[in-house]
Amino acid sequence: MEANEMKELLSFLRDLDNNNNRPWFNEHKERYLRVQKLWNRFCEELIRAIGAYDKDVAGLSLADCTYRIYRDTRFSKDKSPYKTHLGVFLAKGGKKSMHAGYYFHLGTGTSGEYPYAHMLAAGNYCYDSRAVKILREDISEGWEEFSTRVLGAAGSDFVPDMEGALKRVPREYPADAPYADWMRMKSYCLIATTGDDFVLQDDLPQRVADRFRSTQPFIDYINRAVDYVNEEM
Questions:
Q1: CA–CA separation, 121 and 208 (whole Å)
Q2: Fewer C-beta within 10 Å: the chain N or C terminus?
């Protein structure tokens, strides 16, 4: 995709952020449909680019990895009807499979935090508790391999996401161990935020895929536990 097309996407999101209501959205529906086509094309190109090195996601469809722009406000205090970001999640078996995968998020860019920041995330935020137990055991018992071969392979801009982690290390693990923070995790994910300078350049799908490539050992490591649990069910 060309930089001017990504600029069009961002311009729409920022305008929507300032006018998050149904009358404005309906008035600009044709503009949204244009943006949706651009985003779908970006996602299709990203699937091909990541699928070139990770065959687990090569055959995904748009329905497997994209999300609606309409918010579910039933259980939220925020009644804004529309999301002001666009996200795509490429994971083995699709976005609902509970596998780790590659998530790219285009925000409004008005803050360095989710959901405003542009973000790359490798992993997932929802795992079966049995997979979490296996991961804690595997990481603690094989810390040297995990820290060097898996984490060491990931780009230095990717950092562990500790949001939602336990406040204390589970009692069966030493609190002063080098892997202690990983024992507190319930959601195993590496994240990297980026800015407009990265997004507003040509060939974004390939450049996103290139950055994600270093996280494939992490994805494979997590999914080994997920697959084991699925096979036992």
A1: 11
A2: C
- pLDDT > 70? residue 233: no
Number of folded domains that form the chain:
1
Q: CA-CA distance, 79 to 85, in Å (whole number)?
A: 16
pLDDT tens by residue, 21-33: 999 999 999 999 9
Provide, for the chain, the percentages of residues in helix, strand and coil under a 3-state DSSP scheme, each rounded to the nearest 5: 50, 10, 40
Q: Which long-range contacts link 68-72 to residues 24+ away (Cβ below 8 Å)?
A: 69/32, 69/36
CB 106 within 8 A of CB 87: yes
Computed on alpha carbons and rounded to an integer, the radius of gyration of the chain in Å comes to 19
Q: Which amino acid is at 160?
A: P
Residue whose C-alpha is closest to residue 39's, from 204, 181, 222, 184: 204
pTM: 0.95
Q: How far apart are CA 62 and CA 89, in angstroms?
A: 10
H/E element, 194: strand 189-194
Q: Rounded to whole angstroms, how far apart are CA atoms 231 and 134?
A: 14
Torsion angle, alpha carbons of 16, 20, 24, 29, to 10? 60
Domain that holds residue 213: 3-232
